[in-house]
Amino acid sequence: MYIGIFGGTFNPVHLGHLRTALEVLERFRMKQILFVPSSIPPHKNKHEMASAIHRLKMVNLALTGNPKFGVSETEIHRRGKSYSIDTIKILKKEFPEDKLAFIMGLDAFLEINTWHKYKELFNECDFIVHSRAGVAKVGWQQSIPAEIKANFKKKGTAKEFTHTSGNKLLFTEVTSLGISASYIREMVREGYSIRYLTPRRVMEYIHENNLYK
User: Fold this and answer.
1) Domains in the chain, number
2) In a domain, 101, yes or no
3) Cα gap 118→38, rounded to integer Å
4) CA neighbours within 13 Å on the CB side: how many for 93?
5) Per-residue model confidence as pLDDT tens digits over 123-134
6) Are the C-beta atoms of 5 and 101 separated by less than 8 Å?
7) 206: in domain
8) C-beta of residue 176 within 8 angstroms of C-beta of residue 185
9) Containing domain of residue 44, as a range?
10) pTM listed for this prediction
11) Which residues pair with 104 in a beta bridge?
12) Residue 158 CA to chain centroid, in angstroms?
């Protein structure tokens, strides 16, 4: 069965994350999607980051009621920076009977050549890259880093490629809600309501714990 790995800072988790996860889950007929909050993300500004425990609690609150959405705490408990290649290898051992697919936005994929051991990532599992609001559309094939483009072969449609390892690189469109975590943090700082941008329980948690002020 297919299990999706949906990593991110989730600072905070919002309806855009949840809708994207749902559409990917249904489109690729997945058994489950695991949200993996990062502890120390290498590419993020730590000054605006809520603690890992706060972000983990918000993700758990947001996923309540959906049995096909789960949470992995592997990056929260692991020491050091949260490198995706380490996370994937750990989860492969936890789910030896399942096929894993790493889910990421096009904005992140366009910068994947800056990731730790990025060339090795595609040897570990499938990758599903989804569209992102505010990110200019480019040809899917053109988004693959030049250094590794020769390792991919188009399969069938322009949205599906096969890596030399046999793993797949899949591109998909998702509903563009135009919600971002940075916008939510800005709204909180300015004293505006974030209702309907994030689940009610997450909104209440942010206010109760005085986050992002």
Assistant:
1) 1
2) yes
3) 17
4) 6
5) 999 999 998 876
6) yes
7) no
8) no
9) 2-177
10) 0.93
11) 129
12) 22
